[in-house]
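FAQ

Q: What does a record look like?
A: Structure on top, sequence underneath. For example:
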């Protein structure tokens, strides 16, 4: 089991939820308004007059065999519109209840 955290421009919200749904990743938690900026490229997401866009985040626990496919599809989304910003991170899950 892996933890997949996705930080993304809010314009991606429906596409990412659809991707999780079609990949049979039912459970996730989402924070709709995150502020931040990418470490290399992309525009800041501060929700203010200078940088009005906001980002969101989703965390989902996924089966190991689904991670590579999800990361590949997320990378395709990001490459299509790099300025928007989309990043995904994976951690091992040691235990859960």
């Amino acid at each position: 089991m892996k933890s997949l955290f996705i930080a993304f421009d809010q314009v991606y919200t429906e596409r990412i939820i659809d991707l999780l749904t079609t990949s049979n990743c039912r459970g996730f938690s989402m924070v709709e308004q995150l502020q931040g900026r990418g470490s290399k490229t992309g525009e800041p997401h501060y929700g203010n007059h200078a940088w009005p866009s906001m980002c969101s985040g989703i965390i989902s626990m996924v089966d190991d065999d689904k991670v590579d496919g999800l990361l590949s599809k997320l990378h395709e989304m990001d490459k299509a519109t790099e300025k928007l910003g989309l990043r995904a991170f994976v951690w091992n899950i040691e235990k859960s209840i």
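Q: Is there anything notable about this one?
A: The chain has a mean pLDDT of 92.
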